[in-house]
Amino acid sequence: MTQTLNNPQALPKFNEIPVDEIEAAISKHLDANLEAIKTLSQQANPSWASLVEVLEELDDTLSKAWSPVSHLNSVMNSDELRSAYNACLPKLSAYGTEVGQNKDLQQAYQAIKDSPEFGTLNKAQQKAINNALRDFHLAGVDLADDKKKRYGEIKSRLSELSSKFGENVLDATNKWQKLISNKDELAGVPESSLAGFAQTAKAHEQEGYLLTLDFPCYLPVMTYCDNRELREEMYTAFATRASDQGPNAGEFDNSDNMAEILKLRHELANLLGFESYAHYSLASKMAETPEQVVGFLEDLAVKSKAQAEAEYAELTAFAKEQIPNNELHPWDVTYYGEKLKQARYSVSQEEIRPYLPAPKVLAGLFEVAQRLFDVTIEEDTEACVENGDLYHPDAQLFSIKKDGQLVAQFYFDLYARAKKRGGAWMDECRVRRTKANGEQQIPVAYLVCNFTAPVGDQPALLTHDELTTLFHEFGHGIHHMLTKVNTAAVSGINGVAWDAVELPSQFLENWCWEPEALAFITGHVETGEPLPKDLLDKMLAAKHFQNAMMMMRQLEFSLFDFKMHLEYNPENPQPIQAVLNNVREKVAVVKAPEFNRFQHSFSHIFAGGYAAGYYSYKWAEVLSADAFSRFEEEGIFNKDTGASFFNEILSRGGEDDAAVLFENFRGRKPSVQPLLRHSGIKAA
Questions:
Q1: 324: pLDDT confidence band, cut at 50, 70 and 90?
Q2: pTM over 0.90
C-alpha cells in the first residue's frame, strides 16, 4: 500500500497511487472512520476537543486519500481509473449518509451547543457546530428508519448518475473529430490556432489539421473560420453532445440520466420536508426564498433585455448583406459578432494574444496578488513528474508566502488535452486547520483550466478571455488558500454560502481590465513590450460589446436551472426541453435551433454543485462588482483597501454569514448598480 492512499500526510505522490488498490484503500479508510465515529458519538460528556477535533482529523485523512484520486479522474482520465473512481462513489455516498444520519452524533453536537463550553468557543468553532446541526437535518437524521434508508438509496444513485453524466459529456466531446487536409477550408482561422490543430493531428499520428470539440479548438473555428458549413457542422456537434441529436445521436445520451436525476432530487427534497429541490437548495444559501431568486433574475432580465435585443438587431443588420438568404443562424453569431467588433473597434482577441504569453501572465497575476494582499508566490522548480510530485508535464506546483512564512501551495494545470475534463475549476487538495497536537496544516488547491497549449518552443499565448478565466480561478484559489480560519469545516471555501462563493473569483477578474495592472500583466512574446496604449484603448472601448446579450444568456441558464427544479411535478413531469423552451421564449435573444441540446452537457447542474444554484454566478457578481467599486473609489492597488478585503472576506472563510462579511467590507448592503455599470447596461 502506498503513502498517498494510506498515510497521506505530505502532498500527494501521484505516481504512488496504484489504480488497482484505490477501492480497497478507500474502503479501509471508511470502515476505520465509521468504527471510530461509533465510539465518539456515544461519549458521556462530549467536548470540542473530544468530539469535533477528532472527527476533523478523520475527515482530513479520508480527504487526503480521496482528493488526488478524484483530481486525477478529472485531469488524467483512463478506463482503469474511471472504474476505480466509480466503484468508490457508492461507498463514499453511503458513508456520508450514515454519518449524516447518526442520531447519537447529532445529539453529541447538540450537547456541546447546549453546554457552557459553547460560549467559550471562538466564532469559527460555533459556526462549525451550528452548520453541522443544520446539515444533520438536511441529511435526514430526523427521518423514520424506512425514509432514512430511502434517503441513502437516493444519494447513492444520484452520485452514480452525476458521474455518468460527466463521463458521457467527456466521451461525447472526445468522440467527435474532423481531419482537415486542405488549409483553405480553414480560411480566416489565425495561424496560432492552426498550429495548435496541426500539433493535435501530429499527436494522433495524422497529417493536416485535427479539429476537436475541446474549447481551444471549437472557439477559434466558430469565431474566425470563413467556412460556414464547417462552422455549422462543429456547432451542431458541440450543441448536441451526449444527446439524442447530432452526429453521435444516442451513443452517449444523457436524457434518461437527467430525467432520473430530477426525479430523485425532488423525492429527496420532499423526504426532508421541502416543497421542491429549489427550496432544499436554498437552505444553505444567502438567498432565502425561491421567489427572491426568481425575482432577482427576472429583474435583471427586464433591465437588460431591451439593450440585448438592440445589440442583436445591430448584429443582424451588419451581417445581412454577407449571409446567403439573409438568415443569421446560431453558428454565425460568434463569427459576425467578431467581425462587427473589429469593424467598430479595430481590435480582436488575436491581436492581444501575443501580449499574453503564459509565463508573463502568471508573473503579472502573482504581482497583482502581491500588491493587493502582500503575498509572494514562487514555483517549486524541484517538483516533477518523475518523482510523483506532479502528474503531467503541464502541471506546476507553487508556494505562497506571507510575512516570510509558507501559508499555502497550489497546483496549476492550464492546458487542454485528451482525457481531461473541459472547463475551468478550483478544487481542494488540503484544507487549513490546526491539528490536535497544535501543528498547523496549510491549505493546498488544484487550479485547472483548458487553454490552448504551447506550440513548439513558443509559450502558450492566451486570449483576453482566457486571462479573465485564469484570474477567476485564482480568485477561488486565494479564497481557499488565504484563510486564517483553523477550523476545517469553515476554513477557506468550506462553509461559505454557495451563492457567495463566486465573490472572490469574479472580483479578481476586474484587474484584467485595469491599465495599471495590464502594464505588467502583458508583455509581447518577442519584445517584452507591454500592451500598446492604442490597443489597450481599443480593448477597453470594446469591453462592453454585446454584454447585454451575454447577460441574457446567463439569465437563460439560471432561470432554466432554477425553474426546472422549482416547478418539477412528479405526477406529470414536464419534459426538460419544454422547461428550457419556455424560459427561452421569455428571455432568449438568440434563438436556438430545435436540435440544440445544450442541457445534455450542462455539467454545472447535472454533474457539479450548482443544481438549483446556477443563479449564484449572477448573485455573486452583484457582490463582486460592488466590492470592486470600493477599489475604484480608493485606488485599485490601495494597500488599505486590499488589506480590508483580505481581512473581511478572504481570511474569514465561512466563519460568518456571507452577508455579514460583505457588509463589514463595504459598509452597507450590496447594490446592483455597479454590476449594471460594469456591464455597460443602461437599465430600462
A1: confident
A2: yes
Number of neighbours of residue 388 by Cβ within 10 angstroms: 18
291, three cell numbers: 421567489
Q: How many helices (H) and strands (E) does the chain have?
A: 27, 9
CA distance 649 to 657: 11
pLDDT digits (tens, 9 = 90+) for 603-649: 999 999 999 999 999 999 999 999 999 999 999 999 999 999 999 99
Closest by CA to 551, choosing from 666, 684, 669, is: 684
Residue 257 near residue 606, CB atoms below 8 Å: yes
Q: What is the pLDDT of residues 44-103, one digit of tens each?
A: 999 999 999 999 999 999 999 999 999 999 999 999 999 999 999 999 999 999 999 999
CA distance linking residue 270 with residue 161, whole number of Å:
19
Per-residue pLDDT, averaged over 332-361, amounts to: 95
CB atoms within 10 A of CB 229: 10
d(CA 605, CA 258): 10
Hey, which residues are catalytic here? 473
Q: Would you say 447 and 411 are in contact if contact means Cβ atoms under 8 Å apart?
A: yes
The helix (run of H) or strand (run of E) holding residue 440 is: strand 440-441
Q: Which three cell numbers stand for residue 543?
A: 469591453
Residue 7, pLDDT above cutoff 50: no
Which domains, and CATH codes, for the chain? Answer: 3-100+102-138 (1.20.1050.40), 176-239 (no CATH), 255-347+546-614 (1.10.1370.10), 353-527 (1.10.1370.40)
Q: CA-CA-CA-CA torsion for 601, 602, 607, 609, nearest 10 degrees?
A: 170
What share of the chain has pLDDT > 70, as a percent? 98
Q: How far apart are CA 111 and CA 440, in angstroms?
A: 28
**Beta bridge pairs of residue 212:** 177
- One DSSP character per residue, 529-575 reads PPPPHHHHHHHHHTTTTTHHHHHHHHHHHHHHHHHHHHS--TTSPPP
Q: In the chain, pLDDT over 90 holds for what percent of residues?
A: 95
How far apart (Å, rounded) are the C-alpha atoms in residues 413 and 68? 14
User: What single-letter amino acid sits at 310?
Assistant: A
| Phi, psi dihedral angles at 3 (to 5 degrees) | -60, -45
**Residues with Cβ within 8 Å of residue 152, at least 6 apart in sequence:** 93, 94, 97, 98, 101
Sign of the CA dihedral 494, 496, 501, 505? negative
Q: How far is CA 516 from CA 364, 464, 532, 535, in A?
A: 11, 16, 13, 14
Q: How far, in Å, CA of 476 to CA of 492, rounded?
A: 9
Reduced to 3 states (helix: H, G, I; strand: E, B; else coil), residue 448 is strand
Tell me the C-alpha distance between 130 and 125, whole Å.
9
CA distance 17 to 501: 31
Characterize 240-278 residue by residue with b for buried, 16 or more Cβ atoms within 10 angstroms of its Cβ, and e for exposed: bbbbebbebeeebbbbebbeebbebbbbbbebbebebbb
Dmax of the chain from CA atoms?
Answer: 81
Torsion of CA 118, 122, 128, 129, to 10 degrees: 0
* Whole-angstrom distance, CA of residue 138 vs CA of residue 338: 47
CA end-to-end span of the chain: 64
User: What is the spatial distance between Cα 111 and Cα 109, in angstroms, rounded to a whole number?
Assistant: 5
Kindly report the backbone phi and psi dihedral angles of residue 592, in degrees, each rounded to the nearest multiple of 5, phi listed first: -85, 145
Rounded Cα–Cα distance for residues 194 and 213 (Å): 15
Q: Is the pLDDT of residue 568 over 70?
A: yes
